[in-house]
């Protein structure tokens, strides 16, 4: 029987149910939070996480894939508390979220030493707990696939080959990082049907996205609500066209919502919605506005909904 690791332990894959495939319970820099803890209010962060997750639960969500890795303050004890208090299952990852920088720790340690860290989280447990990572995370963004980014990608790839664990790769379509990321995974022998190239929905270049799908990976239309990257109507048009072209089985739809995030000073965060940088960014936008729009466009029936929100995440997580 196929199983999946969650922060509350191993479950039967069928128990995943309705899944949000890319969200964050909390995003904050662990070095900042460690060095200047008074800048953070853990109770507020927990409250925000519970509000977001309970709202998603009200829409029928049973599981949330939390894509928070190193440098975004991954904290599996917090995830477990949110899962316990909300009754929503949370799936955690291992990996490093960097666009280039790596700590000096890695200067004289090679790819395989990084792989070892990831495998430890997958097989032993994360942060001294027995909570195991269910997937691997890496990222490529504006600086491109730099030497350090490639090192993390190869380490993630090797951990995937060694353990059979799936991969989620943050990408930046504006500079077309996706094809190079896929190429690295291929070189390392990764099963591409266990890879999600996240954030493909940030472009409306359907042919670019289709080119990735043709390699056998899943693509994430997973940043609904982040208008500054692309508006909801353009995102929906892209989703609709991919569905018309028959790619339902390759799509992950989600919001990349961060219940709390320390990247923005409060005055900037307050202006994000009025200035149109975000639009109803939440863990429910896809159910409130996206699914209804795609249904209206005639590209999403009940079977398509089940494929995208149940079957795809389950297949990605379990092979
Ligand atoms: Zn994310």
Helix-strand topology string: EEEHHEHEEHEHEHEHEHEHHH
Helix coverage percent = 40-55%
Query: Could you tell me the radius of gyration in angstroms?
Result: 18 Å
Q: What is the mean pLDDT?
A: 97
Largest sheet: 6 strands, parallel
SSE topology:
Blueprint: E1 3-6, E2 9-12, E3 19-23, H1 30-35, H2 42-58, E4 63-66, H3 76-86, E5 89-91, E6 93-95, H4 111-123, E7 135-139, H5 147-163, E8 167-170, H6 178-187, E9 195-198, H7 206-213, E10 218-221, H8 232-244, E11 251-253, H9 266-272, H10 285-296, H11 302-318
Parallel strand pairs: 3-4, 4-5, 6-7, 7-8, 8-9, 9-10, 10-11
Antiparallel strand pairs: 1-2
Bound molecules: zinc ion (ZN).
Descriptive labels:
319 residues; alpha/beta; six-stranded parallel beta sheet; three-stranded parallel beta sheet; 11 helices; 11 strands; 41% helix; globular; binds zinc ion
Q: Could you please describe the fold and organization of this structure?
A:
The protein has helices at about 30-35, 40-60, 75-85, 110-125, 145-165, 180-185, 205-215, 230-245, 265-270, 285-295, 300-319, and strands at about 5, 10, 20-25, 65, 90, 95, 135-140, 165-170, 195-200, 220, 250-255. The protein is an alpha/beta fold and about 325 residues long. Helix 4 packs across helix 5 (about 145-165). About 45% of the residues are buried. Zinc ion binds near residues 24 and 67.
In short:
The protein is α/β, with parallel strands linked by helices and 319 residues long. It is built from eleven helices and eleven strands.
């Amino acid at each position: 029987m196929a199983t999946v690791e969650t922060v509350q332990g191993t479950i039967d894959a069928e128990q995943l149910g309705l899944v949000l495939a890319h969200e964050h319970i909390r995003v904050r820099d662990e070095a900042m939070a460690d060095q200047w803890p008074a800048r953070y209010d853990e109770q507020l962060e927990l409250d925000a996480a519970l509000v977001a997750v309970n709202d998603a639960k009200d829409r029928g969500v049973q599981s949330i894939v939390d894509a928070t890795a190193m440098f975004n303050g991954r904290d599996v004890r917090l995830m477990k508390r949110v899962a316990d208090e909300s009754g929503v299952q949370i799936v955690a990852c291992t990996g490093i979220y960097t666009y280039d920088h790596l700590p000096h720790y890695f200067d004289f340690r090679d790819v395989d030493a990084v792989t070892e860290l990831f495998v430890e989280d997958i097989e032993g447990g994360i942060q001294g707990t027995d909570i195991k990572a269910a997937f691997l995370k890496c990222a490529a963004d504006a600086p491109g696939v730099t030497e350090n980014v490639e090192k993390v990608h190869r380490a993630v790839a090797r951990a995937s080959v060694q353990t059979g664990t799936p991969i989620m790769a943050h990408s930046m379509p504006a500079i077309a990082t996706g094809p190079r990321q896929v190429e690295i995974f291929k070189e390392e022998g990764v099963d591409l049907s266990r890879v999600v190239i996240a954030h493909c929905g940030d472009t409306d270049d359907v042919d670019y996205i289709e080119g990735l799908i043709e390699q056998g990976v899943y693509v994430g239309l997973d940043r609904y609500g982040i208008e500054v990257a692309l508006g909801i109507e353009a995102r929906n048009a892209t989703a609709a066209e991919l569905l018309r072209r028959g790619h339902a089985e390759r799509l992950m739809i989600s919001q990349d919502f961060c219940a709390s995030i320390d990247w923005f000073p409060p005055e900037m965060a307050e202006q994000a919605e009025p200035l149109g940088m975000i639009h109803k960014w939440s863990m429910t936008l896809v159910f409130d506005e996206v699914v209804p729009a795609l249904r209206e466009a005639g590209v999403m029936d009940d079977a398509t909904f089940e494929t995208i929100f149940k079957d795809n995440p389950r297949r990605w997580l379990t092979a």
